Amino acid sequence: MRAAGTAAVSPIFYLGEFAEGMLNGALMKKDIQDLTLDELRTELEGWGEPAYRAMQIFEWIYKKGARSFDAMTDLPKSLREELEDHFRLSSLELAEGLRSADGTQKYLFRLADGAFIETVLIPSGTRRTLCLSTQVGCKFGCVFCASGREGFKRNLSSSEIVGQILFRSDASNVRLSNFVLMGMGEPLDNFENVVRAVRIMNAREGLDIGARRITISTVGIVPAVKELARLGLQVNLSLSLHATTEALRSRLLPVNRKYPLAEVVRASAEYAGATGRMITVEYILISRLNDTAADAGRLAAIAKRLRAKINLIPYSPGCGPEWEASSRDRTDAFLRCLQEKGVSVTVRLSKGADIRAACGQLAGKRAVSPG
Question: Which of the residues 59, 75, 211, 238 could staple to 280 if both were Cys, CB 3.0 to 4.6 A apart?
Answer without folding.
Answer: 238
